[in-house]
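Marked as duplicate of an earlier ticket. Keeping the data here for the record.
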Amino acid sequence: MPKKNRPPHNVFDDALAKNLVGKTLLIGITHRDSDGKVLRRSQIFGLVTVADRAKGICIRDNRTSEEKWFPADTRGIEPARPGEYRNRATGELVCDPDYLDSWTVAAPKKSGRRKTI
């Protein structure tokens, strides 16, 4: 991948990324509409299989074994405190994850322009 497409060092920490692989990560995801209103919250928990500056971060979902990819951004990842974390949507109980992260997915702002067909 060309260097210009890689995130800067303040966005992706190579040392942290190296430590993430093989560890568990719990990610909380907030989905917002174009006005910023929360639509829903979800979580994913699983094993980090890839943490690469060029490719991103891949997690194998603990429930489905499906691989989910996230951008190559380690800024929000932090060590988790020991304990139990409950996924409110599924009821799944996650015990002692290694790391926590959170993301917000926001719909684009409305342009105010009408589309005509």
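See parent ticket for discussion. The chain has one helix and eight strands.
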